[in-house]
Amino acid sequence: MRAGPLGVTLLCAMGAVSPVSAGEVQGGRVSVTGDRLALAVALDGATPVELRTCHPSCASADAGSGTFVRFGDADHPPIRLIIRDVEPPIDLQRLRFAAELAENERARSATFQADLPVPGVRLVKSFEVSRDGYEVVMAARLVGPNAAAFMSGRRLELELDAGRDLLPPPAAGFAAMLERTSRVIVAGGAVREVGDDRREPTMLRAGDWAGSRSRFWTLLARSDGAAALEPRPGATAPLAISGERGRLAWRYTFYAGPLEKGALTRADPELVRLLFSGLWFWLRPLSFGLLFLLRGLTELVGHPGAAIVALAVSVKILLLPLTTIAERLQEQVNATQARLQPGIDAIKAACRGEERTRRTIALYREQGVHPLYTLKSLAGFMIQLPVFVAVFDMLAEDFDLQHVSFLWIRDLARPDALARLPVCVPFFGCDLNLLPFLMSGVSLATLLRFRSAVLTPPLVRRQRRNLMTITALFFLLFYTFPASMVLYWTSTNSFQLLSQELGRLWRRA
Questions:
Q1: Which residues pair with 217 in a beta bridge?
Q2: Does an H or E element contain 258, and which?
Q3: Is 42 within 8 Å of 28 (Cβ atoms)?
Q4: What average pLDDT does range 255-278 have in this prediction?
Q5: Which residues contact 400 (CB under 8 A, 6 or more apart)?
Q6: 424-452: burial string, b at 16+ Cβ within 10 Å, e else
Q7: What is each CA distance from 434 to 353, 472, 477, 481, 493, in whole angstroms?
Q8: Is 24 in contact with 103 (CB distance < 8 Å)?
Q9: Most buried among 26, 138, 435, 440, using CB within 10 Å?
Q10: Can you tell me the distance from the alpha carbon of 500 to that of 470, in angstroms, rounded to the nearest whole number?
Q11: Is the pTM of this model over 0.70?
Q12: In 10 A of CB 223, how many CB atoms?
């Protein structure tokens, strides 16, 4: 088989060149593999029929110590090229391509060539798989004396299909907020989602990324030229990226891999924006700082589960100044409540309707208290809320927590699932999760052991009822959340209870 001038040039640039032997073709496919990627390309159509991505490597995944995801299959190829506006249409999948392999220190590649059913037009496609990264570079070119005339008024379209493996696993309760797949565009220093109901094309500049992402994995494409993201109905429909009309050469870079900072940075620093993209811009640096702290604690204590416990303790210690302010504000509210309560009880016993409201406001004015004084305690909580949001988002998206066991927890990235329930319970799912019960038990112990020096017994009972309601709401919220998040909150509450008891002993001494 002769490669032709263009094919020889491309292949020689890659290093050692060799025709594909019969032994390298299995089931009509040619495999191009790196340490972390395995690409299978069918000779019919020169179309990738499977793209397998592994972490930390495919050798580790095959040995059971790593993870992997497959993008696409024979019926839904992850990457497909279509020539649009052709009458009669040309089915590239019916073309039988000849292939040659090449490799160098940086990548392994395969180049495919076939004549179109149009005189004087030949299609050349090459796939370059990174040896140690998650990138695939695909180049396509139409050559021949009639290529320019053939493409006049026509365009090439790339279909990107993430496949079934990227679809979110079934999730009960509020965990469904985390387990979802979305279409995204990374462009202009920002990440934005593409809705399924979008009807107008989205223009992409050279270097913009577009594709699909789940909680931990993503498949993205970047064109070296201007393109348009064409809408397709349905959440699982492939993404269509159309090039400019009349072009004869195209080059696309694909990132198929984990949402992990190091891997994203090596592919393109802009892709790091995918991490914690749901947070406000000022919260993202806080999540990255907490992730850095968690990594350091993992190195120190030797296990991610123990590091999460250490992270909870560390954050509580770092927040002590804010916690002191919050407690002081709460004590001010408690003292004001205790001072006002006798008068409020008397007004409630004697008055109703507008008269009760008028006399209550008069009491506030007489005591020099603003009617919204209870918001002081809320302000104390709000100054700590950004840290809680940042740490929970970080733990929810931490790729390295996948399949990590701790104590009875089989996977820190999923609910702890101590035992399988006889029947599935709506909202709560099919598993008995122990951590939420421990979390709620510690919270209840903390509030029952709390003593205020200024609150009257009726106010103490009211405060306990309110806090028990909040504890029940947290139980519902956290029950189906990943074990890492529930472990963090349980550790936080445990540290609070321990501090509270030590403080009581210190005051007695």
A1: 258
A2: strand 249-258
A3: yes
A4: 94
A5: 260, 304
A6: eeeebbebbbbbbebbbebbbebbeebee
A7: 47, 15, 14, 12, 16
A8: no
A9: 435
A10: 19
A11: yes
A12: 24
| pLDDT at residue number 380 | 63
For the chain, the average pLDDT equals 85
- 4-274: CATH topology is Beta-galactosidase; Chain A, domain 5 (2.70.98)
Cα-based distances in Å from 128 to 9, 46, 198, 354, 495: 15, 13, 33, 78, 52
Residue 344: Cβ within 10 Å count: 15
> Which amino acid is it at 210?
A
What are the CA-CA distances from residue 114 to residues 243, 247, 329 (Å)?
Answer: 21, 18, 76
DSSP 82-137: EEES-SS---GGGPBPEEEEEE-SSEEEEEEEEE-SSTT-EEEEEEEEESSSSEEE
Q: What is each CA distance from 440 to 129, 192, 275, 315, 464, in whole angstroms?
A: 49, 37, 30, 20, 14
Collapse the DSSP code of 228 into the 3-class scheme (helix H, G, I; strand E, B; otherwise coil) and give the result.
strand
**pLDDT higher than 60, residue 372:** yes
Residue in the structure block whose two tokens are 């990374």: 186
- Residue 339's φ and ψ, nearest 5 degrees, are -70, -35
Structure token digits, residue 51: 């793209």
Domain extents for the chain? 4-274, 284-319+384-508
Helix, strand and coil percent figures for the chain, each rounded to 5: 40, 25, 30
Angle of CA points 434, 438, 441, to nearest 5°: 140
Can you say how many angstroms the Cα of residue 231 is from the centroid of all Cα atoms in its chain? 23
Please count the other Cβ atoms lying within 10 Å of the Cβ belonging to residue 77.
25
User: For 34, how many CA atoms within 13 A lie in the half-sphere containing its CB?
Assistant: 29
pLDDT at 7: 43
The single-letter code of the amino acid at 444 is L
